[in-house]
Amino acid sequence: MTKSHDPERLEVRHLRLVRAIADEGSVTRAAGRLHLSQSAVSHQLLDLERDLGTRLFDRIGKRMVATSAGTRLIEAAARLLGELAELERALDGTKRSRVPLRVTTSCFTSYHWLPAALSHFASAHPEVEIEVVIEATRRAVPALAADEVDLAIVTDPPRDDGWRRELVIDSELVALASPDHPVIERVRRGALRWSALRDHELLVYDISDADYQRLDTAVREAWRHESGERLASPVAVRKVPLSEALLELVRTGNGIGIVDRWTVAPHLGRGLRALPLSPHASRLFYAVWRRGNPRELPIPELLDVIRKAGQRVLVRGSQRRQ
After folding, report:
1. Is there a cis peptide before residue 279, judged by omega within 30 degrees of 0?
2. 138 by DSSP, 3-state: which?
3. CA distances (Å), origin 11, targets 6, 18, 88
4. CB–CB of 30/24 below 8 Å?
5. pLDDT tens, 222-263?
6. DSSP annotation of 196
7. What spatial distance separates the first Cα and last Cα of the chain, rounded to whole Å?
8. How far, CA to CA in Å, does 226 sit from each of 80, 153, 251?
């Protein structure tokens, strides 16, 4: 590549471009995020690499993986875009009296109840402008690091000291099956042991890799504890992103759902049974935000509202036990 001598090679759009490709792992998904065509993103990346005189990404399999030069640029882009967003908010504050508070969650099922809680909070705090950042759902923690959101509700909070985290919801996991599914015969004392799931396809929402690993480990460890043997084959798990599709697959006997009880409570008794798991299992949802809260956002007050709303949902779910 011939290195350009143009002193204005890097622009803000280039920073957003490399961040999108790095976060999404592909040009196609980055194009959707940037609201551009795939061809436009590819050409912009090629032009940028030509102007900088170095490759920024290598294609490995189906993923775009950053080179060492690309990694340096991506890290700088995260910092610079965050600082730019902070500057824009500071300048905009001279003409706006409301303080923006941007919220996302790593679980799409949370959107069944979270917006109502946020709306209740906003009505009591007119000085705050709540924004639900749905597009950051699958990348909640990276969005926090890039200062695209102020608060994230996640099941896998970052552990470094730059963040504060508090537990907001302890959600019971249940096995969801049709009433005539063979696994029903293995229920003992009102509960289904994890080991009973080893020979069945498990249906889950679009959960994180960490949640998937915990699910796989629960089945494997239960079987090893009871039989003294290790499972020879992987636990069959299929991600089903649409709630309606997952429920219909379970209702027709095509798999067993592993879900949060409160997400399926309204559907029980319609060809579906929720089976408590033994040992008891739950997903823990944490609120995460930047330590020090530099913008002095009313996060403690918001967390109180979220906890109460989440508890109401859990209670409603527990009242529909089947």
Report:
1. yes
2. helix
3. 12, 11, 16
4. yes
5. 888 888 888 877 788 888 878 889 999 999 999 999 988 877
6. G
7. 66
8. 54, 35, 29
Alpha-carbon distance 236 to 201, whole Å? Answer: 5
Beta strands (DSSP E) in 155-248 are 163-177, 192-193, 202-204, 237-239
Stated as kind and residue range, the H or E segment containing 17 is helix 12-24
Q: Position 175: which residue type?
A: A
Helix axes 12-24, 27-34, angle to 10 degrees: 130
Residue 305 backbone phi and psi in degrees, to 5: -65, -45
**Which are the contacts of 299, defined by CB distance < 8 A and separation ≥ 6?**
101, 150, 151, 287, 289, 293
Q: In the structure encoding, which two tokens stand for residue 267, read together?
A: 């559907």
Alpha-carbon span 120 to 126, nearest angstrom = 11
Under a CB-based contact definition with an 8 Å cutoff, are residues 162 and 290 in contact? Answer: yes
Query: 99 has which bridge partners?
Result: 128
Q: State yes or no: pLDDT of 320 exceeds 70.
A: no
Coil vs helix vs strand at 257: strand
Which of the pair, 4 or 151, is modelled with greater confidence? 151
Q: How far apart are CA 198 and CA 230, in angstroms?
A: 11
Structure token pair of residue 9: 């090679």
Task: Output the six-digit token pair for 321.
Answer: 């036990």
Cβ–Cβ < 8 Å for 189, 307 = no
* 8 A C-beta contact, residue 321 and residue 265: no
What Rg value do the Cα atoms of the chain yield, rounded?
23
> In sequence order, what are the residues at sequence separation of 6 or more whose Cβ sits closer than 8 angstroms to the Cβ of residue 191?
275, 276, 277, 278
In which band, very low, low, confident or very high, does the pLDDT at 97 lie, cut at 50, 70 and 90?
low
Q: Which of 274, 268, 152, 165 is nearest to 208 (CA)?
A: 152
- CA atoms in the 13 A half-sphere facing the CB of 183: 28
Contacts of 303 (CB under 8 A, 6+ apart): 166, 168, 287
Residue 298, both tokens: 């009313």
